[in-house]
Amino acid sequence: MRRDRHGRGLRGALYPATLPAAASRAERFDALVLDALEPIEARWRHELTKLDVAVDDVPEVRADGKPAPTDGILHDGAVPLSRLVPAGVDRTGLPTRARIVLYRRPLEARAKDPAELAELVHDVLVEQVAGYLGVEPDVIEGD
Fold first, then answer.
1. pTM for the whole thing?
2. What is the pLDDT of residues 63-117, one digit of tens each?
3. How far apart are CA 59 and CA 34, in angstroms?
4. What's the rounded Cα separation, in Å, for the pair 85 and 66?
5. Does position 37 have pLDDT exceeding 90, yes or no?
6. Would the pLDDT of 23 be above 90?
């Protein structure tokens, strides 16, 4: 164990890892995405076996100045909230799986509170899964 720089106390976590306050914003967002995905995956388990869901902090910005492809992107104005990346082949020739990428910071910026963020994440996932399966979003929710 190490002491702080003044030699008075032990350095360590402010909160025990078992408390919710110990989780970072990114970890809480990841848990929120998993909670929103669970009922969708329970209903569409067989159709979603070849789909991955990922979280990035912000959308990718191309260094060459060319506009990024807009297919599969769910926008709020000019800001992408998520993207559906179809299955394909990577640079080395290996096959890739289809993937939904949620952008954490733009989603968090549009929500006023945690409940609104949970609803927004759910809505975005429903839209992207519907796009992946080629059905209407109402079908995904079971309405």
1. 0.79
2. 665 556 667 788 777 888 999 999 888 889 899 999 999 999 999 999 999 999 9
3. 20
4. 19
5. yes
6. no
At 86, which amino acid appears? P
Residues 6+ apart with CB under 8 A from 121: 29, 32, 33, 36, 102, 107
Tokens of 2: 């190490």
User: Which DSSP category does 45 fall into?
Assistant: T
